[in-house]
Amino acid sequence: MGLSSMEAAEKVSPLTVLVRGAIERWLAPPILAEIASDCAISNYERKITLQALTAIMLDAVLGMQPTVHAAAIARRDEWSGSIQALYAKFGRIDPQFAAGLVKRTADGILPLLTSPRMAGKPGNTSIKVVDGTMPDGSEHRLGVLRELAAAGLPAQAVVIYDLRTGVCDRVAVDEDAYASEKVLAEALLQEAVAGEIYVADRGFCTCRLMGQLIERDAFFVFREHAYDLVYEEQSPEQISGRCSTGVVLEGKVRLCDRIRKCVWELRRIHVQLDTPTQSGEKDLWLLTNLPPECLAVEIAELYHRRWQVERHFHFIKRELHGQMPSLGEPRAAIFALCVSLAAGNLLAFVKHFQPKEPKRQATKQRPALSGYYLALEISRSYAAIEALTKARDWRAVGELSSRSFCTWAMKLARRIPWSRYVSHPRGPKQRPPPRVSGKHRHHFSTYRLLQSKKEQQRAC
Predict the structure, then answer these.
(1) What's the whole-model pTM score?
(2) Which residue, of 33, 80, 142, 240, has the greatest Cβ tally within 10 A?
(3) Can you state the angle between helices 14-26 and 371-388, rounded to 10 degrees?
């Protein structure tokens, strides 16, 4: 008896089947229509629909096609019109719809990953990192950029990243690359939940943002910024211990909010760094309203974990192609970035099913997965999965209940060869030796250089 279409697809690449199932559950055409309806978007869709645009961008983001143009040609039967009209449509997509893709995937994934059945520790506090990012300079295809040598920045975005699950919870975007990150963060923190911990760099350390979180009974760990902060010391610093980056001291301050005309008592944590930062700073100060039960050393380590969001941004822009220099229109660049953030959420859901190694059961850690190898596997096998399966197979997956879908995902994850996708981090970078100028001699024979080195080694 032959294999069914889904069984054949699972045999080719169970990882890609799991990703395709997640797309069907959280980014299917009916769900995209709901997102557009929630955002009150009125788009003219007689020839080019939002579903077709999202499918084309997903193909480019996940690497099934090398460019948006190639993805559009591969899906030519799903839209009509000219390529110019398609690119113009990308440039008119409402940023609210793009941000809605991220929100919808996060709203579907986070409850599953934090449930007692999946997480095992439902009481853990959610730790969110607030940080900004933007695509790099785009190609000078737009008329307004043709005569400029400087880069054209297409957009600005601020993301709330969940440290425990690796999911981008929310994103606020603006077509103006010079838009204030603080203003975008204010809109995101209006949805802060009591008890959550928000970690951010000094660019977000303002009385307005801290006041928003305090009013919502949320906690924060912000790196101190001298701008707009007026406080007085309540107690001198005392040594609290040592973290992985240096010695930790703690004191108390009273911060005056001139806007709300109130005073807050906060903890001020001082980290004396063993190694200076890239800008030469040897000390950093953190302001927090966490209770005394949270040790100062733990808070310093928590801020150190903030750098995970930078690695996630690198994964989103490079491996998931969320940064496309060919898309110069601000709204098109925002759409590409948000689709890649939504795809990153789907991969965070897939990563959660990675089993723990027996030797690491005591620490409950999993070996780190390489985003590059995951994206490479999906790009190589996605077309084969689509050819083997039918639309009704995926509709059946998308209609499963939450419990049944998790059971299906767990069963499929047992067949994934996770060892193929484990990352292999390189050692610390070595300082390159001084180089001989090539001004007078422009090239050498590599073979002769190697032979000369061997002769020197023999002589020694």
Answers:
(1) 0.90
(2) 240
(3) 80
